[in-house]
Specification:
Mean pLDDT: 94
Low-confidence stretches: none
CATH class: Alpha Beta
Number of strands: 8
Strand order of the largest sheet: 4-3-8-7-5-6
Order of helices and strands: EEHEHHEHHEHEHEHEHHHH
Shape: globular
CATH architecture: 3-Layer(aba) Sandwich
Strand content: 5-15%
Radius of gyration: 17 Å
Length: 249
């Protein structure tokens, strides 16, 4: 697995199939590991958040979860082979988990969304064992009692893989803070993936994903919440790419 240096972090040049193999290797090692899924929004946050950047640099895997990120890597002369989106990884790995009897836990999203996603996936993949789900209340990360409750819940369930959908950088920081205590072999930050599976948020059509316009589809769905992330964020990212291009020239 080759790691490419882009935007001051390492991103793994890896396919989806190779990702599954590495996750299974990490499960067998039984040592707590973190898998992150960098996209344009994450790259923009990293520039002003040293803690987030440090976590990214120490993650076991950093999967390229963005078509524009793939384009940028090619422009900068360090091409990534393919997009490995967390939203594709979640259901695809559930299929593998059902066959190989891996146990999963879903943490995140709005009230009952993680549970709804779990119900949909267990019906789709007979034999899939999701040993627990929990959607924490808003602001839970600042409530020590709530965090102790979540840690105890996960430890009791002893999953092989923990999927966390809390949005960046909250999900990565929460995993990093508690990963040794919960002692889950693989924790994967997957953003809005539970919402997509549950149908709470509609995902862009495949053709829009392929041309790098998934962000535009999401912006049209939630303009008030996402306008700054995408309209301002995309300009920031283009500026970062330009600076990297000039630096590498």
């Amino acid at each position: 697995m080759k790691r490419i240096e882009l935007f001051e972090i390492g991103i793994d040049n890896i396919s989806m199939e190779e990702t599954f193999n590495v996750i299974e290797q990490l499960i067998k090692k039984k040592k707590p590991s973190l898998v992150v899924t960098p996209n344009v929004h994450h790259i923009n946050i990293l520039k002003n958040d040293d803690e987030f950047k440090k976590i990214y640099r120490q993650a076991s895997m950093a999967l390229p979860d963005s078509t524009p990120l793939i384009w940028a890597s090619k422009l900068l002369g360090t091409p990534l082979k393919e997009k490995v989106a967390g939203s594709d990884l979640l259901p695809s790995f559930c299929k593998i988990a059902a066959r190989k009897r891996y146990e999963l836990f879903f943490l995140g999203s709005g009230p009952s969304i993680a549970k709804k996603a779990a119900n949909i996936l267990t019906k789709k993949y007979p034999g899939l064992k999701i040993v627990g789900t929990y959607s924490p209340p808003f602001g839970f990360e600042n409530d020590e009692d709530e965090n102790r409750k979540i840690v105890a819940m996960i430890k009791k369930c002893t999953p092989d893989v923990l999927f966390v959908g809390l949005g960046p950088p909250k999900q990565e920081k929460w995993i990093w803070r508690y990963k040794d205590e919960i002692n889950v072999p693989v924790s994967i930050a997957v953003g809005a993936s539970f919402d997509f599976v549950a149908g709470n948020v509609k995902r862009a059509p495949k053709w829009m994903q392929h041309i790098g316009f998934e962000w535009f589809f999401r912006l049209c769905q939630e303009p008030r919440r996402l306008w700054k992330r995408y309209l301002v964020g995309n300009i920031m990212f283009l500026w970062l790419v330009l600076k990297e291009f000039i630096k590498s020239d």
